Amino acid sequence: MALRFTSSSSFSRSNILSPHKTTLLQPSFSINHHLRRRNDAVSFPKSCEWRAMKVSACVKLEEEEKSTSLKEWGKVSAVLFDMDGVLCNSEEPSRKAAVDVFAELGVQCTPEDFAPFTGTGEANFLGGVAKVKGVEGFDAEAAKKRFFEIYLDKYAKPNSGIGFPGALELITQCKNSGLKVAVASSADRVKVDANLAAAGLPLSLFDAIVSADAFENLKPAPDIFLAASGNLNVPPSECVVIEDAVAGVQAAKAAKMRCVAVTTTLPEENFVSAGPSFIRKDIGSVSLKDILTGDSGFNNDKIQGHQNNNFSMQTLPELLKERADNSQVLDTPASDNFLSAMQYASPNAIWNLVFGVNSPFGEKEGESQSGRVQQFIDYIADLEARGSTRIVPEFPSKLDWLNTSPLKFCRDLKGKVVLLDFWTYCCINCLHVLPDLEFLEKKYKEMQFVVVGVHSAKFDIEKDSEAIHNAILCYNNLTQ
């Protein structure tokens, strides 16, 4: 069965492929079930009109979104710093000390073997690798003792300079701004004290220091962060955590705290499933403004797509206008079709168009499709929980998304209705134009199932489940 989208009025215009109550003039679509007929094409404003309309609307929406994000971030009264990999450049030395421990046991390891167990406490850090390597009769406590002996003797001598640049400055700025500061680490206290001394960070800098010694459940359990919050007498909702490990980000979220992830230990993509509030390169890249305002979602390296791209939101209106007025965008039928589809793009989509984004996740050979699906799931969860989201998942360009998960048809769909939600697959990371409808017809004309399209959003901020429900009802009636 083939599918055609036309300008007929068989069904409610508000439910099929048309956003609800937008601030722009929206052409409406509905499904024509008289599949043998070809109606006249839908007419759109000229490309120059769309450029002016879209630039004006998106600038306004970006400004409103920024203001909303600042309000949503909420009050901040305390900052909880993880130690290894955040304040101290100690993750690699720790792994080397662990390699030395296993070498004494006659087990060959590499520093990379310990990476999956980063931030989970020394017992699990060592015990996890022992389990992987099949070390029989492994004594975690004895291994920890030897680990600390090697680590303190070889890698953490006082004032040896293992502190990350910018750590002391950020701590001082936080304290001068009236924020409380604490160390909240899954390491034992002996290592915490040694690392802070090696980094030149006096214990007196901190209002509280919480280590793993007194806890049975370490990160990703929230216990350490909740204890730090209690010691500071600050509600969890007013705490911001800075972490370098996935387990740490998970612990912060479990404690209902906001979290900044830094990529000193793990690459950025490793944090996608954990869902930090935003991501920075290292602690020197975290500003006091980031902590107090939540970055507003606009300076995130992930959204920028390039670490050297230092545009600020103050320049966005001018940049949008410059791109819209650029003579390289020609008034041709092709550009008219492209620009008319821009009405469905979100403000984040315009941001991606202006500044560019990283290579779509899962599009490169060898990259995990399941990881990209998880990225999408995290996006939706964040959107439903907060009403907005900071990190936009990246999907393959143009029509490629039709052939990749989660839209890859891997089994017999005879007699089924396949619902394509164009808000989900178009607007969140456009500018992917609405799918070429002739392409859809040709692609699925021999298939024994029906493809249904719906634009299920009240523009960019609210998912409209009723639109999906009504679309399914309409198509159930058509196919009976």
From TrEMBL:
One of its GO terms (molecular function) is hydrolase activity. Keywords: Carbohydrate metabolism, Hydrolase, Magnesium, Metal-binding. Residues 415-458 form the Thioredoxin-like fold domain. It holds the Pfam family HAD_2. Signal peptide: none annotated. Its cofactor is Mg(2+). InterPro entries: Beta-PGM-like, HAD-like_sf, HAD-SF_hydro_IA, HAD_2, HAD_sf, PGP-like_dom2, Thioredoxin-like_fold, Thioredoxin-like_sf. It comes from the Eukaryota. PANTHER family: 6-PHOSPHOGLUCONATE PHOSPHATASE, HEXITOL PHOSPHATASE B. This is Haloacid dehalogenase-like hydrolase. It comes from Dillenia turbinata.
